[in-house]
Structure formats: C-alpha cells, structure tokens
C-alpha cells in the first residue's frame, strides 16, 4: 500500500507522475556571500486516483522568502478576471469582500474597491470571497484551508477561485511549474468536485492565457452550472488531467527543456556572446539545476525586485542583479524564465534589442 495520502480526499491510491529528484529550495535566494552548497529537497508530483488532485507528496520544511515585485501580467490578469465576473452580474453593488492569504503579493481588493466593494469586518461573512493570488495551493492541509475561506462566505455569496490549471501544465510540458511550497495543482474537474463536496455549485468558468492557461471559477450555494463549466471540464478531461499515463509525459519534458536551455547557452557562448537571464523566478531554479547551467556561462539573472539584488539563484549560484546591470552588460542573448513577461520586458527594456541582443524564452533554442 502506498504511504502517500491525498491532501484532499485522504485516499492512498495514485501514481507518481513526475520525479525531479532532489532540488534546491525554489523560493529562497541566498545572499551572494553565502557560497553554499545549498540544501536539496525531494520534488515529486503525485496524481490521486480518487479525486484527481495533482499534488506534492512530500512535506519537507523548505525555506521561503517574501515575494518580490508582482509582474504586470498578473495585475492585468486580475483586472480581466474582475471585469469578467462583473459582466456576469456576480458583483453586487456596495458588496463586501474577504480575500484569502497568499505569499505571492498582489491583491484583488483594489480592483474590487473600484467597483464599490469594501472589506468585510473581522470574522464577518462576505458577499464575495476570493482565494488570494494563487494562495490555496500553498496549503498542506487542503480541506482546512478551503473550509477556512468558505466559513467567511455569506449564504448567498460568491466564491472566486483562480488557478493555473493542471491541464495547461500538461499541455505545455510545464514541469517546472511544480515547485516546493506549491502543494496542490488543480484541474477544473477536480476543483468543481471539491467545491461540490462543500455544497457549492460552480456556475461560471472562464479561461485566460496567463501561464498558458489560467481558470477562474465562480461558485455559489444553490444554482446550476452554466455551459461554460461543462465546456472547460470536458476539455480538461479530454486533455488527460486524470490520466496518470498522460500526466507522466511531464517527465519527458524535463530533459527536452533542460537540453534546450543548455544548447542555447552553449551556442551563444561559443559565438563569443554574453548570456544573461531575466526574472529570478522560482520556476527557473529547477530548470537551471537540471540543465547544469551556472555563472560560468550564464553570468547573471536580472530581476526588478530590489529584495533579490545581491542574492543568487539557489543551486546554480548565478548572481541576481538589477535590470540596469543587464543593460550595461549588453548581452547577446537574454533567457526569459517567465515567457508571459515577454511583451512587458521588451517595452521596459528596449535597450536590449537596440544593442543587438535577443530575448529567448526559456526552453527554446536560438
């Protein structure tokens, strides 16, 4: 019998669909003055055969740091999400809101305040409860975390739940979206079933392009599911979100993207160019570690967050520097570790291309 127990349903039937071995802590960036070696922790993904929740089966206490500056792509995503919910008539004028905790920074409250919402008082129930910016996935105890949010929901209130869907992770081979501290990876059929167990009906579903596929669900007590819900659920089931064989293809994606990064860096260095990175994101940590790329070839990773300057990427030891240092270095290739930021960084840093440099999304080759 498996020793793994599902974080939602408590079942022990399931399969490991991804095993990255031991990896550095993906949310902790040590000072550059600390040479390491950095501690390593197991990083695996298990798919529950009972409820379909993809999850980390390991509970290691991994160090984390507060999140840095939120990318514009996330801010824009929240704006679009609030606009979609408002267009569906689910935001009552002058309503109250409770937002769940998140370590990612950013908040739905300013967008909702612009539409007349104000925070509910301490312990009060609210017209709208929203899972903070991808907050619920950080909970080791999934039932306790969800129940804590739903306890604040008024009887006729709306719960808003947004997540980077497991369907997109599979579709795009985004194995490095799996990282320490992110314990749950929801698909839409699994999320709909989770909420149904708590007496909520998902009435509306929206999809957005962020991270290759982000889903927003609106759920209420009573009511009925609209056609948008069945459409997303059916598409994701067809995409294999509950199929361990289909999910196991993530393991193959590891070598493909790690090799692509290695080839990109080696080719640029061989041609005499300087290679740097942009965005010291947690998803870059395992990719750099698996590719065996270090500061001897990729000299630095620039990031807009001052909190990360003077630090280094865990595991690989690559320094994290301000964007100004990247511009001064005039690299021939800049590897972008969060491809969603491409339009944003090209607008913010036109000097890269003006000097003859190229932006390359991580996982592709030049």
pLDDT < 50 stretches: none
Mean pLDDT: 94
Order of SSEs: EEEHEHEEHEHEHEEHHHEHEEHEHHE
Radius of gyration: 21 Å
Distance between the termini: 47 Å
Tell the overall outline.
globular
Number of contiguous helices: 12
Can you walk through the features of this model?
The radius of gyration is 21 Å and the shape is globular. The model has no long low-confidence stretch (mean pLDDT about 95). The strands form 3 sheets. A 6-stranded mixed beta sheet has the order 5-4-6-7-10-9, with helices on both faces. A 5-stranded parallel beta sheet has the order 13-12-11-14-15, with helices on both faces. It has a 4-stranded antiparallel beta sheet with strand order 1-2-3-8. About 45% of the residues are buried. It has about 375 residues and is an alpha/beta fold. About 30% of the residues lie in helices and about 20% in strands.
Summarize the structure.
This protein has helices at residues 72-87, 109-113, 142-150, 166-171, 188-197, 227-238, 244-247, 250-270, 282-291, 323-329, 342-348, 351-354, and strands spanning 14-24, 40-48, 54-55, 96-99, 118-119, 126-130, 153-164, 184-185, 201-208, 214-220, 275-278, 298-302, 320-321, 333-336, 358-361. The chain has 366 residues and is of the alpha/beta class.
